[in-house]
Amino acid sequence: MKKIFRLFLVLLLGALGTLALIIFFVMKGVFGPLPSLDELKNPSLMQASQVFAADGTLMGKYYRQGGNRSNVNYKDISPYVVDALVATEDERFYRHSGIDTRATLRAIFLLGKEGGGSTLTQQLALNLFHERRATNIASRLIEKLKEYIIASRLEEQFSKQEILTLYLNTVPFGDNIYGIRFAARTFFQKEPLQLKREEAAVLVGMLKGNSIYNPRLHPDKAKERRNVVLGQMEKNAMISATETRRLKALPLVLNYKKLDENNGIAPYLREVLKDEIDDALEGMGKPDGGAYSVYEDGLRIYTTIDPRMQTYAEEAVQQQMPILQAALNRQRNIRSGGVWRGHENVLEAQMRTSERWRHMADEGFTDAEIKKAFKRKVAMKVFSWNGRREKDTLMSPLDSIKYHRQMLQTAFMVMEPQGGAVKAWVGGINYKTWKFDHANLKTKRQVGSSIKPLLYAQAMEELGYRANTTVLDQQQDFGGGRLVPATAQSVSGDTMAMASALAYSRNGASAYIMKQVGPDQFSRFLKRTGLPTKIDPHPSIALGTCDLSLYEMMWAYSIFPGAGVSTRPYIISRIEDRNGKVLRDFDQEKQRQRVISEETAYRMCRMMEGTVTFGTAKGLMDRLGALEMGGKTGTTNDNADAWFMGYTPQLLAGTWIGCDDRFIRIESGLGMGSQAARPLWEAFFKKIYADGRLGIRTDAVFHKPESIIQEEQQQQSDSSVIQELMDAGLMGNGTEGEAHPADTYTIPGEDGNRAPNGNNRGGRKDRPAGAAPRIGDPHDQPQEKKKGFFRRLFGKDE
């Protein structure tokens, strides 16, 4: 017996000595480094960066796999969450120092049948400092020893509340969601402090198995687990038996909504934001010397977006685009597929860049075999203008490519013209299907007649032109065979007031003004507005043959409601680090420069009122009930691009509509800027005027410079001049001219809003047979209204 006892003692001491030696080696980092004291005090947690709207609404997040988390303070966590966590995961949490000896021995002797031995502190240690889980017994032993050491150190450095907070900020809840804040927001649309007992029990119950007990995937199992947690809370005297029975009887109710790249507020803007953030933080190092990462450093990005305006912008798109798409789909060349004749290279390029082509090529199929497969019908989901924005159908992959490329796209932006803050941004019709953003600086399309106000503004500023300056609507010869317009088909040969020429978008008149200003001078003027795109001084840019982005057009148009000052649109208000320290404040970094005088800007605002009263956007101002506003339509060759740029004293908004392939277009009048883009703009402003909370008033007026007030006081009323201007204003066909990218081009002209007597007095334009209804079909404007416009324009009392 003595020998046996002695042998046992030797083995025991040997085992303890070996264990002590292993612990020593673990602490010395032989089996991998342990976190330092500084690392324990400041654990490096990969956090998602959050994007907020101007009112603090969470718009979306940027994160890498495993980084979808955001820290929350202990005081901002519901006590029900803490109670449920302690009762279920570590009943003696407040009584141990990181290691629960009794629970550990129980787990060893009962082989884990009545629960594991890990404390919350040990689990936290594993979450914070171990990226991989051990796969064998030896490695698992080393891992457990590391857990014990780190847990003991954590207990020395942190209070119990701090440990609970760290744990709840790092624990995974499934669906690639980490931390209690995002879990509460995702499953219940609440902050952690707002969680009820039964909701807290659901989330804590997921920790045992965040896939098995995921309430979205397995509601019955999640409810059972929730009730187990409630039972544990009762067992630990955290809740009464009566309350437990009541809560267990409740149904499991979720409000699940996970923010990802395809949903949330302004998804197109959030994609553009990433590049903006990288540029903003370039060269700005973190305290530890590293570079900031939008995916890992828990940045807080505050944007200028107004959630209500963004919603109204998206609703306006949803209101107008299906109407236009239906009109395009009815066209013979779309129904027959003839629109693709001569453009087969576009389809082949799309096929070759698709995943289907790459996968089949990797499997050894020949090009001919792959093309044949692209013509076989298969079950698929395609975009649709229904509630789900998709539908199930049977379609060949080739037809699917045609179908999606034939979808009309749009870009819509809203900004404060004086400050530059962008309030709404829509880059396309559906981000999930089309990631390409059409509103950003780099996406350029031909602008058509929407460029004309900038030419007119230069003539006013530098040549002394005024609204009543007489111009000639006639083809102009710029030498070298450069005729603008290319033919005389769209010119009247008449003289008219410049105000009338702009309202009716007369091409010949714009060419005439370009002749006086000069192409080189106009090109330099456009550069002065701030536009980064280089515009070559071709005479045809008077009609908008250049390509610019909607972003740039907003930038240039800001000189009108912005009292002559060009303001670059900006979308980020400020960027903070994870601790709330401001890294960049963009409100203090506005890019502004004076381009024209206040007087010229005001005169242009009033002159551009003609477009929205009796011109190409006739009746818009009346329908919206606005006291003052300005605008300009734009249509490019064969309706490939439709534009409307408009503004009030408080807001500037612009929209573009067209297909990504310019040869696909609405061929009827519904494809012009006045009938395609203007209704979308109008639908948006109708919504914001109706929302009193936004403070956008219909009675707002443009600031009138003192010099103009004094000038008007010195003028005498001359009824004969007013009548002459009125008559001049009634000339022209009331439509916008088309443009073409070459110096010389053919302009087929558009049907005018001609009155029956042929005097072009803005009679209603008949819709083509079968065309879809449009928003606010304009009626004839009464003669008194036109007279009122000219009286207001030239400072005369009505």
List keywords for this structure.
11% strand; 798 residues; 5-stranded mixed sheet; alpha+beta
Q: Mind explaining what this structure looks like?
A:
- The strands form 7 sheets. Strands 2-1-3-15-16 form a 5-stranded mixed β-sheet, with helices on one face. A 5-stranded antiparallel β-sheet has the order 7-6-20-19-18, sandwiched between helices.
- The radius of gyration is 34 Å and the shape is elongated.
- The termini are far apart.
- About 8% of the residues have low confidence.
- It has 798 residues and is α+β, with helices and mostly antiparallel strands.
Spans where pLDDT lies below 50 across 5 or more residues: 717-725, 728-734, 738-787
Put simply, the count of helices is: 30
Shape: elongated
Distance between the termini: 123 Å
Please report which band the strand proportion falls in: under 5%, 5-15%, 15-25%, 25-35%, 35-45% or over 45%: 5-15%
Query: What's the pLDDT, averaged over the residues?
Result: 84
How many β-strand runs? Answer: 20
Major sheet attributes: 5 strands, mixed
Spatial arrangement of strands, main beta sheet: 2-1-3-15-16
Percent helix: 40-55%
Radius of gyration: 34 Å
Structural class: alpha+beta
